[in-house]
Amino acid sequence: MFRMKRRFIILFLSIIFFGFNSNKSFAQKSIEVKGIVLDEFDNPIPFAAISILKKNRGTSSTEDGQFSLRITSNELDDMLSFTSLGFNPFKIKIKDYLAQVEKKIVLKETVFEMDEITIVAPKTYVLNALKKLKDNTLSKPHQIELLYRRAATEGGKSKFFVENYIKIRDRGPASPLGIVEVTESRKSADYRIWKRKQWTHDINWMITANPLRPTDRAPNLKKYKWEITGETSYEGEEVLIFEGTGKNKWEKVKLYIGVDSYGIFRIERNRAILVYKKHENGKLYLSYYANEWGLGRKQIPQKYWNTDAEKVSYKLEAFVYKVETDKKKIAVKAFNPQNSTEYNVKAPLFCDDSGDGIVAFKCC
């Protein structure tokens, strides 16, 4: 069973955990479904996918196993599905879950023996997964809606927190980023010494952190050296864990690839994590993203040296809570950071090379 070695916790005591829905009137009339996902030993299961079956709505558990989503009274008879790498899927009717005294879901570890199959060379296996990427993921135009969070710390202290509800017109990891719209934004008081502004939205870092996306920073995974470092499972399919190393030894990528489907269920690159789950049509789409990084002294204005600002770091999380594949219901307006007080734009928008005229931010 796979265990996270790294803890990703956003500490900000004054922030309330908001439900995953950007419609305020909906939130006021809705029912909150929340709880924790655990294994059989009461350990939290991070990044588990929680979905309302046949509705392509849901969320993911946090690193501490907590989850929250909102439903309407008409959905009480719907089924909730819980899936995670290394565990058997679990389903329960929403009203039955709400009737439980303890709001927790316990997933059982998948116990299996690898079938006697011939495993080709690791690199060949990865190349086959890349070749089938477009077939295995939602690659036709669709809309994803997500809750995005960013926390900034200086000197190890939380100083600024931003929360956005975002819509993206996307075509999956095999294509460039599509239109991005920020539908709602909340932020805390800003206690930073260095009130740094960015020329674009942090959502771009989610794209550039994904080694499968065609960007200027995408690594050439075909030239990496690959080895199998472990095995797990996902919804009954055996999954192999491949670790690749680039020209520089610090360039490392982990891919969790299905033995039968060649689907890529999880990606780890440096400190970035991207988790994919299945759509009702069997295609994979992004469910959860997390990343963190810090800036070196040379990247910080000299006037802030020898202050807490000299040790600045950022932590990001994104929870995808809805996917829309009906073209008639896809409606995304391009976000203009020039109208935001949180970003200092120094570059224009541009049209990507996807051929469909989608406008996106330039990934940097």
How does this structure look, described?
This protein folds into two domains: 24-106, Immunoglobulin-like; 122-360, no CATH class. It has helices spanning 24-29, 94-98, 122-131, 133-136, 203-208; strands at 31-38, 49-52, 57-60, 66-71, 79-83, 90-93, 104-106, 142-154, 157-170, 180-187, 225-234, 237-245, 252-258, 264-269, 272-278, 284-294, 312-324, 350-351, 359-360. It is mainly beta and 364 residues long. It starts with 23 loop residues before the first helix and ends with a strand. Strand 8 (142-154) and strand 9 form a beta hairpin. The chain is 9% helix and 37% strand. The strands form four sheets. The chain has a ten-stranded antiparallel beta sheet. The protein has a four-stranded antiparallel beta sheet with strand order 3-2-5-6. It has five helices and 19 strands. Mean pLDDT is 83; it is low at 1-28 and 341-364.
